[in-house]
Structures are given as structure tokens and as C-alpha cells.
Specification:
The protein is mainly alpha-helical and 261 residues long. A hairpin with a 2-residue loop joins strand 3 and strand 4. Helix 2 runs antiparallel to helix 5. The protein starts with a helix and ends with a helix. The mean pLDDT is 94.
């Protein structure tokens, strides 16, 4: 993180984001067409990820080999869950729910993918720093998150989504709900170690939504420390979403003043 290769990737991503947004703003395609294109992007992205990360692992007999995708690559990170939302908002005819999801995708794609680029979860665990321009997973990771930023920015720019202040609460509720669900997922996918029936440690644990541990060491060792960390994440999320929703708060306030005046 924040190595020379990382900064080069950030520069590449900035160029891709600028080019993508410039194209969309200039052409102004319908949001449904953009979502359809992103459905194809998601399929290609997941295929690259799975084919580059899947491993052949021996079974119990030590001879039979099975394909295995490491748990960290399961699509339960916030940016991976966007795939389901992209498909739903493209094909759903439930307008209230579709609008609520698009209103959620606006801040979560924009801010979430930006944080993912700044703090890439694949480095150094899945991709070595020196392999950031040789590993297919690195291209998948950085280009996919760049695409999400473009999508998040175009949702309000398209002018097709009626984002309202009430969607701040629904967006925050969706995010907090997914974050809470990640605690169950991280526990379900963990590899606990027992001695005499007593839990003594974890040999492996996923970290979806960063709810199990921060992206950098904070020295968390007590339950109360983890609870403070989780609360800090929630407050930060609320603040970031509020910042991105500020124009809609101002717009609604001005509309009320005009009605009264």
C-alpha cells in the first residue's frame, strides 16, 4: 500500500475514471444502457477473478484434486455486492426499490470504491507488491473499482434518479445492515481452533467490510476496543454519505422555502 506501483496504479485509475466519466457526460446515454454495460463488466470481472485465483487443492486422500476459491475472494465485500445491485437495478420493474438501491449505489460505489483503491485489500495478501503489473487479479481489482466510481458518479449525473433526503436514511440503513451481516459471514467462514472443546484461536478469518479488523494495525485486543472501532466505522460511513447527500439536503430545503414564500 502506497508503494511506487500503487501510486502508478492510482494514476492509471484516475485516467480511466476521467475518460469514462468524460465519455458518459459527453454522450449522455440512458442509465439503463449504462447498467447493461456494467452487467457485462461485472461478468468479465468475476470471470477474471475466479480463473486467476482458483487453486487445485488435494482432498483427504492426498491424491484427488479439487478446484478451490479462497474465501477472501467470495463476493461479500461491499464492492462485490454491488454486482447484485447492478443486475437488479437494470432488470427490476419495482421502481421504489430500484430508486432506493440506485440512491444507495451513488455514495457506496463512489466512496467505497475510492477507499478500495486507496487501501487495496489484495495487497500484499493475494498479490505481491512487485507483481502488481503482472498479476491478472491486480488488473481486475483496480479497473473494476475504477468502473464503480464512474457508475457511482453517473447515477446522479444521468438525471434519471430522483434522489431525495429520505434516501440518506435508507442508504445508511442498507450499509449498516450489510455491515452487521458481515459479522455473521466473517464468523461463518473463519477457521476456529479448539483444544478440549474450548475455543483458543482462529487459524483463518475473512474480513468482509473490514468489520473484523482495520486495514491497518490499531492494536485491538479487547472486545470494547473492537466495539469502539465498529462504532467509528459506522459514524464515518454516516458522515461520508451525509457529505455526498449534502446537495440534496440543500435542494430540498430551498424547495421548502420556495413553497412557503
Amino acid at each position: 500500500m502506497f508503494t511506487t506501483n500503487h501510486f502508478i496504479w492510482l494514476a492509471v485509475c484516475a485516467v480511466c475514471i476521467a475518460a469514462g466519466l468524460g465519455y458518459l457526460i459527453n454522450r449522455r446515454p440512458r442509465l439503463s444502457s449504462v447498467l447493461m454495460a456494467f452487467c457485462l463488466v461485472c461478468i468479465a470481472s468475476e470471470c477474471v477473478k475466479v480463473l486467476s485465483c482458483i487453486e487445485m487443492v488435494p482432498g483427504k486422500d492426498g491424491q484427488t484434486m479439487y478446484p478451490y476459491l479462497p474465501l477472501a475472494h467470495l463476493p461479500f465485500h461491499l464492492c462485490s455486492i454491488q454486482i447484485a445491485f447492478i443486475f437488479y437495478t437494470r432488470f427490476s420493474h419495482n421502481e421504489p426499490l430500484r430508486t432506493a438501491l440506485l440512491a444507495f449505489m451513488y455514495p457506496s460505489c463512489l466512496a467505497g470504491a475510492m477507499l478500495a483503491l486507496l487501501m487495496p485489500s489484495i495487497v500484499p495478501g493475494s498479490v505481491a507488491v512487485e507483481d502488481m503489473f503482472r498479476a491478472p487479479l491486480a488488473y481486475q481489482y483496480f479497473l473494476y473499482h475504477s468502473a464503480l466510481i464512474v457508475l457511482g458518479a453517473y447515477i446522479p449525473l444521468s438525471g434519471e434518479v430522483d434522489i431525495k433526503p429520505k434516501h440518506y436514511l435508507s442508504s445508511l440503513g442498507i450499509l449498516l445492515g450489510l455491515g452487521f451481516a458481515s459479522i455473521y459471514l466473517n464468523s461463518a467462514f473463519a477457521s476456529p481452533r479448539y483444544e478440549n472443546g474450548e475455543l483458543v484461536g482462529l487459524d483463518y478469518v475473512t474480513n468482509f467490510f473490514f468489520t473484523y479488523e482495520p486495514p491497518f494495525d490499531l492494536g485491538i485486543s479487547e472486545k470494547w476496543q473492537w466495539m469502539l472501532y465498529a462504532a467509528a466505522i459506522a459514524l464515518l460511513a454516516a458522515a461520508v454519505i451525509a457529505l455526498l447527500y449534502a446537495p440534496y439536503f440543500v435542494k430540498a430545503k430551498r424547495a421548502k422555502l420556495r413553497e412557503r414564500g
